[in-house]
Amino acid sequence: MAELKSVAKDTAIYGLSSIIGKFLNYLLVPLYTAKMTVESGGYGIVTNIYAYVALLMVILTFGMETTLFRFANKPDENPHTVYSTILTMVGALSLLFAACVLVFLHPIASCIGYADHPEYVGIMAVTVALDAFQAIPFAWLRHQHRPVKFFALKMLFIVLNIALNILYFVVLPALYVRHPDTVGTVYNPATGPGYAFILNLVCTSVITLFFIPELTGFTYRFDKHLMRRMLSYSWPILILGIAGILNQTADKIIFPLVYGDTSAGKSELSIYGACVKIAMIMAMITQAFRYAYEPFVFGKAKEKNSSETYASVMKYFIIFTLLAYLCVVGYMDILKLIIAPDYWPGLRVVPIVMAAEIMMGIYFNLSFWYKLIDKTIWGAWFSAAGCLVLFAVNIIFIPKYSYMACAWGGFAGYATAMLLSYFVGQKKNPVAYPLKSIGVYVIIAAGFYAVMAFIPNKWPVWIRLGVNTILILLFAGHILKHDLPVRSLPVIGKYFHQHQKQDYGQQA
Q: What is the pTM of this model?
């Protein structure tokens, strides 16, 4: 239980940064969808380019975040040598990438459909290079169990980014109408969605400055022998990461290429990209869990009861992601207000994408059996299989079913990777997961979702929300009764225990 409390504590802090950050970042969604109409396809451009960014982040970090945790926790390795070697490798690769993109900017921009705006590609190349480099100091903070600074920097980026976006998408455009000569020195309406990329670069550059303490104050040691061993460990993680991120972004990269009508494709992608933001509530939960769980697992790998801990964490992860799923679906009438009404036809993808994100989280939980025995090649195979399924569904069905094919493609891809990892893992390194108990929760959640989904839209909103709230409370009640008794809760449980002692004393 102490181990689970440690994970819960770190997850709470990392999760707070992720949840608050994502919540604040959601302020950009109504801003972008209000200022970029569906017809303009502006938000489709933002969605498409950020999909490339996510893929490039995985390539440039080369799986070195997980590698840092693995090697820095080995008793025969110097953590600072591991850190400085990885920092040098990732920094050099990021610098080389940015330089190559800038040298061949126009051919690259033309290849991915931005011949008219090569500056979008150049700006994001520099930004992703800085982001990749920052990933290592951020991982170092996690390794040193310094979630406060981690949280502070994540928050600073988000707040600064939102403030600048409000300035350039709301304040300056309004001022430009009345004072074009003065405001025109710092704002150009023709830049349009390009400001989303420019402001991201500015914020990323500012955050880099705050990592000076993590980049100085120690002797840099580049160990070639260590580098070769770490690369041997990390390259399957790279393949795993590429396949994994393609499961999240390939649909947004493929969509404009296979949809056919370029203009209509960007409009459809705008709708899909905006609605997926609502589903990303599930992604931020799994990300927060990953931040805390990854260093924890490697630190506890040698303990005898580690398998029992992994099984318990898996169960609680599924329980609370299912609760989050029901909350999002149940309050969709409220959550949909974060995007402009023109984008609402795409809301039907949200339950599908969230289910896919839950399976991705389960897959991440299952992945530690091969990471802990240094057989990361298995992860590469599983993720590649899932990725192939996703590609096939998207390429075959996007021309006919538009962005619905994207949603179901991600679902099918994650399901494939999850099932393969589970069945192979149970043979290679079996863990006694409480499948019966987990299955009960899945069945209850599925039944409650079915009720929510079939409530007629003609019913008043307050009735729909009332019914959904009752179902959510019933699910939470089942959790409290069977797996999280009131007396085990941190604050309420203490009060309950004291009250019980007082009653016992009075009876005596």
A: 0.74
